[in-house]
């Protein structure tokens, strides 16, 4: 429908409700992007989103329950067994098929698909022998594609939780003199945690600590800021967030 | 308001809630039997949430699988001091359903053609209302605060929540300009927040 007045009419006396709008899921486009950036950079805002989530969770319970068919649990069970015992095999099977972020993104929506970045697969990465460790269920590879068309900045991140490995493909993160790009992960509803400074351009692959792997899960946000180029991990990001986007399961 | 949304005190609810928290904590340690327990206690509720948004049984079943895989992977991040377990699970289910729908062509869903069929099916295997796993007082407070909203505001927020619609989709469905819809939602949320007294 063609809507002429897409500017919010002045709502005098109505406080900012963006956290509630984000939790409710009504935001789209630039408003959604702005709210996600706030969630990254403003811990108070992030807490408010969490509060709204808890409230709306109560509302969710009004929905009438419906028994799912028995096959759903069997499918979940076999997927978990598959993850626990065969995740490395699955990764190996994907690699020869020329797996790429571009391919993986085909189903992930128009915005993501518009990004023309290509990151080569971690083909040939030695995969540890399958060791089913119940305490650490193996997980799927995760990706985050971040880009800003205006500035040409792009970052593709591939997280392999099984191998505890992070691969980045970076371009155009031109920092001011004395500044360097720094990578952050923001758990849902949590405060940003630095993953360290990264190059302005090029490829980077490094091991992840167990703690970092635990944070880099589907739904967590990955973000980039420019910080003082001192090679350290900073406590908190300095606005503005120059790139941000969620990690998705491939 | 749905009869399911009853403030009736369910004597087993608090115990079930504790069992659910304990089960999620076991899932975080990789205990798949505990995941089955979480599934048995919550899958009907979450399937209802997903089905309401997705309007398609097959897709909803796939999303339900994904939700419990997410629970398996994320259980370590559940903090019982910060959220009730069923709220936490509902948020995961609802977000997964919204993601699923928004990744598809929305037009089929917006026409609402599937709604009648799905609702009929729901009648057949609806789960009794006393399966609530949450605090009845919190539930009742939310219900009262929603009822206290202006009709337009309440209707918009309910549709946004239960049907997973965005600002522009709501404006189209209800037939008001986008700016009006944004204003309704914002004012409704402000009233709701004032009534719930949090933030």
Automatic annotation (TrEMBL), chain A:
Top-level taxon in the UniProt lineage: Bacteria
Molecular function GO labels: sigma factor antagonist activity
One matching Pfam family: RskA_C
GO biological process, one term: regulation of translation
Recorded GO CC terms: plasma membrane
Domain Anti-sigma K factor RskA C-terminal, residue spans: 108-241
UniProt-annotated stretches for the region Disordered: 231-250
InterPro entries, per the entry: Anti-sigma-K/W_factor, RskA_C
PANTHER family with a match to the protein in the record: ANTI-SIGMA-K FACTOR RSKA
Protein name from the UniProt record: Anti-sigma K factor RskA C-terminal domain-containing protein
From TrEMBL, chain B:
Domain RNA polymerase sigma factor 70 region 4 type: 140-192
Residue ranges constituting the RNA polymerase sigma-70 region domain according to the UniProt record: 43-106
Any Pfam family the entry gives: Sigma70_r4_2
InterPro entries linked to this entry: RNA_pol_sigma-70-like, RNA_pol_sigma-70_dom, RNA_pol_sigma70_ECF_CS, RNA_pol_sigma70_r2, RNA_pol_sigma70_r4_t2, RNA_pol_sigma_r2, RNA_pol_sigma_r3/r4-like, WH-like_DNA-bd_sf
PROSITE patterns: SIGMA70_ECF
Keyword Amino-acid biosynthesis belongs to the record: no
Keywords: DNA-binding, Sigma factor, Transcription, Transcription regulation
GO MF, any single term: DNA binding
NCBIfam families to which the protein is assigned, alphabetical: sigma70-ECF
Family listed: Belongs to the sigma-70 factor family. ECF subfamily.
PANTHER family xrefs: RNA POLYMERASE ECF-TYPE SIGMA FACTO, RNA POLYMERASE SIGMA FACTOR SIGZ
Name by which UniProt lists this protein: RNA polymerase sigma factor
